[in-house]
Amino acid sequence: MRLQVFMGIAGALLMGAPVAAQTPPAAQGAREGAMRELAVMRALPFERLDANRDGRLQETELPITLGSAYPRADKDKSGDISPDELRAELDRLEARLARGPALDPKNPPKDWKALDRALDQFVAHHELDGVALLIGRGDRVLFEGYGGSYGPSTRINMASASKWPGGAAIAAAVVAGKLDMNAKLSTWKPGFAGTPKGDLTLARLMSFTAGATSVNEGTQDIALDPRMNISEAADRLLALPLVTTPNTQFAYGGWTQQVGAAWAVAATGEPFVALWNRTVRDPAGMTDSHFGHPRSSRDALDLPNSNLQAGLWTTPRDFSRFLMMMATGGKVGSKQVYPAEAIKLIERDYAHGLPHRWQGAGAEGGRSYGFALWCEKVAPDLSCPVISSGGAWGAMPWIDREKDLWGLFFVFDRGPRVRPDLAVLRSAGEGIVIGEKSVGTSR
Description:
Low-confidence stretches: 1-24, 438-443
CATH architecture of one domain: 3-Layer(aba) Sandwich
Number of strands: 16
CATH class of one domain: Alpha Beta
Distance between the termini: 22 Å
CATH superfamily of one domain: DD-peptidase/beta-lactamase superfamily
Shape: globular
CATH topology of one domain: Beta-lactamase
Structural class: alpha+beta
Number of helices: 13
């Protein structure tokens, strides 16, 4: 069952022409990246993945490339994946990639109904459970469409799309005077005084410019027990070596944002979950969302070492509420519920001009990085008028302040495999909104 929301002067009737969708280089690069990922998985011995050596793969043993394979690949419903089931899943993915994208960028959806049909086409083509697409302006939802089994209350893990709302909690603590963006880490951890780590700032930690490893070299923060004390987690992470001089390279997805979260916990005296609930979740009205761990907290749990960069579990409706709060400068209705200064702090390029040592498939195209989000476009004053926060499973929230639009692509699959179709859906949806001049509905 699908919920369709077509808002506008004439309901589902188009009042203008959409901007023609084109597959950008980043989307093409994502598809090529997906093919490379699959080739690597083909060559990887099963034993390398089977950490507990029981001859089966549990969900927590699956690499990011196959994180969405469970439970679909579990054909015998045993609760894990056998070598034969893994080979069958790789065969299925290989056939799917051979088919190419579901949507033609040269023939994009041209009205709301066509856009909604494209969501079902996307789900069927990629053999997924479902998808959601929401597009809005300010506090108004202009389009809300669902394909497959997804609905407004479907909850999934957002992977790296968690960074933006997680970073928003830390930014709120900065604006409240609890943290200083430019204070040295040694003011919190004096044992590092006089060292490169001791000179790291919150800005460097949150923008992946601290000189640490990238996610391509390991997910050390995600590997830690979410039940451990977050300060102990930070100590373990800070024991890891820096691999480059701080503020000389950008390397996406490393362990440093979790250290930033631990610093915020120490400065505010609040557990991270409590800090996020107070500054982001509750003000935005995200009643069906919680921060935890990307693999082991599907249900709301009060985990002291909740993972900032990948631990958000949420629904399409809830994440859209976060986007509306950000898009309106921190307001819900006429009430200021989140500091506007924190939004300015977040939406700024902190990796300006730095070479990208690793950025991930689908992040090509000259993007830079802000405070826990991507800067798709950077203004001369280093503010970021177009921002996003794509996740490994394919989810992609964005705000385009030049067009005065926000959007959410909500799916649980693998980012590089769906990025070309996301490019078509995003471009077409924005074009329809601009052409229709829809008034939408507030929520």
